Amino acid sequence: MTSAVPPVGVGLLTLGVTEGATWGWLTAKTLLVPAAGLVGLALALFRSTTHPVPAIETRLFRNRGFAATNVVSLLYGMAQYRWLLVGVLYITDLWHYSETEAGLAMIPGAVFASVAALAMGKIAPRIGGPRGVTLLGLVAILACGFLMVFGLTSHAAFLALWLPAGSIVGIGMGATTMGTSSAAAFSAPPTKFAVGSGVNTTSRQFGGALGIAALAVIMQNSGTADGGHTLDSYRNVYIFCTVAVALALAVGFIRLKPTPPAAPAAAPRRAFRTEDGPHSGEPPAGARAGTIIPVGHAVGHATPAPSTKNRKTPDQLGS
């Protein structure tokens, strides 16, 4: 039963935000519905602190790095999901793209996001680990946000605006998603790796739900009298996205900690035998050639040096 409370709370909260303009922001329904959602989330969090198998692993948030990572993910999710939706609405409404053309126009961003996520896994150790990757991705999204805010056009400009913007934001989203997921995993105990990743994904999706609700409010309040939308309607959404990313960048820069580089692997120890008996470590100059054995073998079971005691000479063998 407890596991059903968080999604219900999120649903009530987003419902209140989305329908606030329709119901009236000061009406009882608008005030009570999101309030009920917040109460439900608070009860779920409180119950999770005492339940043996909690729906929300609240103990992970005692780690400041994990808590900061999830705040960044929440703010990033508020921009990410809204960005993806408003882009399709913008080019189908003002640029008069068909749904098929809009889908094809979104492909470059998706490709760049996939490539960036794979590439960042290789270069992350050289730029501060997940923190560096996350900040790099957020900077790219922020730059693209300014490009969209000041560069929106009411006519189609695929090569001049959409393709470069989609490429930049794709790189940013791929890097940020990879960076926040890795940061959450590194911050959680080894036994809570899967739980930490799941909580981080939930934080991003929770931010996405709030972001979509805010998009509906912005579009509704900035539309025309006949229900249409102007260039400023979409610009306001991109402004909101840019502000959310800027806040995520500030939290990440201040609170996320760089991951130290992995320590080099220790040189394997070797077992060897000298005239004095078995030893381990680096063989001295007097170690008998051909008697070095792997570490995995017990030194006590090493083949002993052949004894010369009672050894017969060739003349004795022939007699």
TrEMBL record:
Recorded topology in the membrane: Multi-pass membrane protein
Keywords, sorted A to Z: Antibiotic resistance, Membrane, Transmembrane, Transmembrane helix
Region called Disordered, residue ranges: 261-319
Pfam family, any one: MFS_1
Subcellular location: Membrane
PANTHER family reported in the protein's UniProt record: CONSERVED TWO-DOMAIN MEMBRANE PROTEIN-RELATED, MAJOR FACILITATOR SUPERFAMILY MULTIDRUG TRANSPORTER MFSC
Source organism (scientific name): Kitasatospora setae (strain ATCC 33774 / DSM 43861 / JCM 3304 / KCC A-0304 / NBRC 14216 / KM-6054)
Gene3D superfamilies found in the cross-reference section: MFS general substrate transporter like domains
Gene Ontology CC: one annotated term: membrane
TM region positions: 30-46, 67-91, 103-121, 133-153, 159-186, 206-225, 237-256
UniProt GO molecular function: transmembrane transporter activity
Protein name as it appears in the record: Putative truncated major facilitator superfamily transporter
SUPFAM superfamilies: MFS general substrate transporter (SSF103473)
Gene Ontology biological process: response to antibiotic
